[in-house]
Amino acid sequence: MAKRIIISGGGTGGHIFPAIAIANALKKLDPATELLFVGALGKMEMEKVPAAGYKIIGLDIRGIQRGSIIKNLLFPVKLALSVRKSLEIIKDFKPDAVVGVGGYASGPLLYAASLKNIPYLIQEQNSYAGVTNKWLGKKAKKICVAFDGMEKFFPASKIIKTGNPIRRDSVDIAGKHRPAIELYKLSAFKKTILVTGGSLGARTLNNSVMAGLDKIIAADVQVVWQTGKFYYKTIIEKLGENYHPNIKIVEFLSRMDLAYAAADVIISRAGAGTIAELCVIKKPVIMVPSPNVAEDHQTKNALALVEHHAAAFIADRDAETKLIDKALELLNDKDLQKKLSDNIGKLALPHADDVIAKEVMKL
After folding, report:
1. Phi/psi at 34 (nearest 5 deg)?
2. Burial (CB count <10 Å: 0-12, 13-18, 19+), residue 157
3. How many CA atoms lie within 13 A of 331 on its CB side?
4. What's the predicted TM-score (pTM) here?
5. What is the pLDDT of residues 189-215, one digit of tens each?
6. Distance (Å, whole) CA 141 – CA 150
7. Domains of the chain by range and CATH?
């Protein structure tokens, strides 16, 4: 008889892409598996999950809004209604197991599953577990993690280190340097820095590149600069579309594999999904963690790499004055590049989706 599984969570690409990877791996294990996603209304998953070919139901739920007492007054009501709707979803779908990948919808759905004694698995992506996952971890059957030392947050007997699922097509960079050079109209004889702050962009990374443009041009180094949706228009208005042949300004990286393939050094935020990809592609990375995330988990993710001498680190507050100097220094230090590349590669867990899918099926 076909297994029925609910996958809950979302909110950002960092939660959605792993969720879809797990779904695809479950389908690969048993094509008859019936899958249902539960996400948060108005969030990215409501668009991305159907585009990947799966059905999704939305809950009217948001997280605690920092700095807004008025918006938070409705939070307990929305939470209670989301738990009630989750119970209805479980009653209608009759799942054999539930998977929580983090994000707003994950909490109510997993809590509802616990009330109905349906086994659930948590996929904790970060090196620092959030409050909701710590609480839900007590009743979880399995907790799949990507970092060492997670017994600080969860019962050790339930933990399995699987890594974070990655977008396989994004990390398939072998033999793609030439098409990458062609796509971005780069010179094959110059060193290249990739700057990526995610699909929406990262203000600090953009300001840091802006502040360092003269140094980049003076060093005759190339930059593929992904600004993100929020900042692209302003940057283009300020600099113009063809500011300098060495500076390639793009809003979004539709071919992540080619962007990675082009790079000698990568500057990036420290989301768990991004780190999982960077470990697989094995290139020297400078991490600039976002300070604007719950429990400052990006800093903790980045420091987990720094401890293994697997990445360089610049704090967000120091980036505008130090980041480009650090990147140019790294480009000229072949020994450090090799050390960072070798060490980040040792942390790669490229088959996380398959391992997690097998654990779900065991439930």
Report:
1. -100, 125
2. exposed
3. 22
4. 0.87
5. 999 999 998 777 788 999 999 999 999
6. 15
7. 4-161 (3.40.50.2000), 169-346 (3.40.50.2000)
